[in-house]
TrEMBL record:
Its EC number is 1.11.1.7. Heme b binds at H190. The keyword Calcium applies. It comes from Chenopodium quinoa. Keywords: Calcium, Disulfide bond, Glycoprotein, Heme, Hydrogen peroxide, Iron, Metal-binding, Oxidoreductase, Peroxidase, Secreted, Signal. It holds the Pfam family peroxidase. Residues 22-316 form the Plant heme peroxidase family profile domain. PANTHER family: PEROXIDASE (PTHR31388:SF5), PEROXIDASE 72-RELATED (PTHR31388). Disulfide bonds join C32-C112, C65-C70, C118-C312, C197-C223. The active site is at H63. Substrate binds at P160. This is Peroxidase. The gene is LOC110699715. Binds 2 calcium ions per subunit. Binds 1 heme b (iron(II)-protoporphyrin IX) group per subunit. GO terms for biological process: hydrogen peroxide catabolic process; response to oxidative stress.
Amino acid sequence: MYFIARISFLWLLICANIINAQLTPNFYARSCPKLHNIVRTTMALAVAREPRMGASILRLFFHDCFVNGCDGSVLLEDTPAFKGEKNAYANQNSLKGFKLIDIIKKNVEAKCKNTVSCSDILALAARDGVVLLGGPRWTVPLGRRDARFASLNAANVNLPPPTANLATLISIFASKNLTARDMTALSGAHTIGMARCSSYRSHIYNEANNINAGFVAARMSTCPSVGGDDNLAPLDMNTPNQFDNSYFRNLMARQGLLHSDQELFNGGSQDAWVRLYAKSNYALAQDFTAAMIKMGNISPLTGFNGEIRRHCRFVN
């Protein structure tokens, strides 16, 4: 009886450890040893065709983690049971890269069937997109599982809008256990990628302070006061396809495209960090990678929670 009770206790302990498992870089070392190479190769082909795709996948990962954790929920299509996150205010008509994640998942499934989660694929692809555009590399902790639901309402509440002021940005990031320093470093992701006219129109037409007049004139030429909502402009007009610290130098020159960008350098608490990152690519790389790892650990599903989706857009 003692032996049976001890075995039961050990089994419960093992289960508890699995349920509360920590993410680890070697999670798929045995079950899918070619995973990293598959993701990297597929991303390299995609970014070579369209450099913007690196930024798109990075943004997709960010928007996944900020809504109920890094669980792949942003990838889900609407179902009769829930409205997905793709039509949230901050996502509507702007999130890209879903087809690329589908392709990576298909390639991974061909080698490792029903093994690797979509949320882990997205985390790896985001890292590789940054590296392919000249940015820093970091080790991605793995072992996430995929959510069985998504939430339009949570996406509308948790994602910072491009109109947010500094206090709002700090508050939203703090709710995810990310510091103001983490937030500023992560904003460095805006050194790559594009933004729609509708996201920055009010910033260039309605704000005379803290914005460069020449920059305003250049942006007005592609973003009329009425119409043209889908016209695109680079978040970093100097090196839009190169991950570097040019974004922070732009902020110091009052050339932040989004209102929320320029809020980071507006006589407030983050000015010193902006100056540091504008001066040092090394400092940016150190803080950005640390913040990415920290963000990737927001409420992951592990152990017996969630599932390994067969298709990233649909629950099993």
